[in-house]
């Protein structure tokens, strides 16, 4: 069965399609989760397998999400992983009751590098991402595809219906925006 058709048929009401889809996408999702987790370089985050399973269930249990195709599905899975990591970070930091948050260094696909000095914890990164989403949704969409869904420039361009050159411009702008936002937070 075609992956796009499985994506469209999957959900709580079609266990067979959901199981087949999981078997087909599991390795891809595991690679995506590994890249997302380790791009934060934070050893204390949720493990890769748990992140895959939690994201997959979150995506399939969401009634609001229409899975159009493979790229869209992976984008939504990447978004779910981001929210899971963000929630995990908040819970972990809340448990510390004001203690020092974990230090992280972010390297986004070896293209977006933010120095150790600019980053104190994951929450600051998420604040920067929320600011970018509020100020420039189109650029945020590029970050979501490139970073959280591990898409190439061409895949991002195809999914967002923009040119690869526009993806590259928005990606460069996003790097500068997030770097500046993190500096302003410190």
UniProtKB/TrEMBL annotation:
UniProt domain RNA polymerase sigma-70 ECF-like HTH: residue ranges: 2-183
Source species, domain of life: Bacteria
A Gene Ontology biological process term: DNA-templated transcription initiation
GO molecular function: DNA-binding transcription factor activity
InterPro entries in alphabetical order: HTH_Sigma70_ECF-like, RNA_pol_sigma-70_dom, RNA_pol_sigma70_ECF-like, RNA_pol_sigma_r3/r4-like, WH-like_DNA-bd_sf
Protein name: RNA polymerase sigma-70 ECF-like HTH domain-containing protein
